[in-house]
Amino acid sequence: QVQLVESGGGLVQAGDSLRLSCEVSGRTFSSYAMGWFRQAPGKEREFVAAISWSGGNTDYADSVKGRFTISRDNAKNTMYLQMNSLKPEDTAVYYCAASRFLSSDSAHHVGSYEKWGQGTQVTVST
């Protein structure tokens, strides 16, 4: 059974950085493409970034491109999201997600992921 656990969230000021981690239990981590999503109060869950099983391909939402970096360490069963130059509008609960069958056309869609973590809160103050 694959389980995802996020960590690293917190309260920071605008312009600060945070690194989120997503630890995945089980021995099949390297067979999953992974993604980060976020959900702000009153809004739908939205795509942030995705990474292929090998880490060789990444994709980002336009709103975070150039500020956030997704990466993974298959030896540690862990995925990361380095968030720099944080803005108040980045405030949300951040979720990691896993997919066995992700394609470049489907990476942005919530329904393309089979497994989800419980989320970690990121709050950016002005």
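[next item in queue]
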Amino acid sequence: QVQLVESGGGLVQAGSSLRLSCAASGRTITSYAMGWFRQAPGKEREFVAGISWSGATTNYANSVKGRFTISRDNAKNTVYLQMNSLIPEDTAVYYCATPLARWAQPTGDINEYDYWGQGTQVTVSS
């Protein structure tokens, strides 16, 4: 069974940075795309960033482009989300996710992801 565990969230001021980590167990992430999503109170879960199995392809939501960077360390079976220039609108629970199928593209479609972590809270104060 694939398990994903996020960490690194917290309470920060606007303009600050945070780095989220997602550690996988149960399978290696080497052949799998990984994604980050977030869900703010009262809103639907939305795509934030995705990365291909090789790391060669990444994509981002327009709202975070230029501020967030997704990366992966396959040797550590871990995916990261570096978040810079945080704004209050970034406040949400952040989830990492991965699809069942190998070699899938890092789509922003939530329905393409089969395994999810429990989430980590990020709160940005103004």
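[queue empty]
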